[in-house]
What we know:
Elements: H1 13-20, H2 40-45, H3 55-180, H4 185-257
Amino acid sequence: MADSTPTAAKPSPIVGAASQGKPGAPAPKGPGGPSAGKGDAFTASKPKLPDKPPAADTANLTESFQATRQQLETVLGSQNQNLMELKVSALQSMEEALQRLETEGKRCRSLLDRNEVLARDAERLITQGNSLEEQQDALEAKVEKAAERNQALADRANELREERMRLLAERDELEAAVQKETDDLTSARAEVQRLEQRKEKLEGENAELERIRNRLEENIARLERLRDEFMTAVKRLKNTKDGLVGAAIETTGAKGGSPGSPS
């Protein structure tokens, strides 16, 4: 803007001199006029006016000044127009940058919300996994106790079976003694009846123990089936937890790489 301003716009000393020497101005009086009595010092300090320039030169300067002024106005108008275009372009660029910044901020907020949701789900699944592990430990302890009790019952059944075999052998010996000793038939019959009653009682106890053993075996089978189902559920929950933790890590990595990527 400063370089395009023409130097001809400055006032010329010739024009100032011409304005001072207008036509019709009184001519300076000579030394014999009324001012002669003021002294030689005043006459010597009075500036000497330049000669009046021709009228044609003043008209040319006026036209030159007008042309220069028109050129200056044209240059200033074009410069103002360029400045306005630059301002409009800068405002548009700033608005686009702000819109992109707002979009990126919304995306970052959504990623942060999603990451928080995944973190909460992972914590919940970890808590559930810990609870299931504790339940599994409790069930394993119960299964161990049931197995120990079942083993004790099995040992007891074996003892009763051996006792039954012994009683059967003893009955056979008693029957042989009855056949051999006819004199002691009455006492032998009483002993046989007593032994038969004991046998029936033992058989009833044996049948009860067999039923108990069968029920315990069914309970153990049901507990083993529950344990298998529980282990399957635990594995499925662990796989789900690993998947959610991996998704959270991938989301965190995507978040860390997004600010450097071009919008």
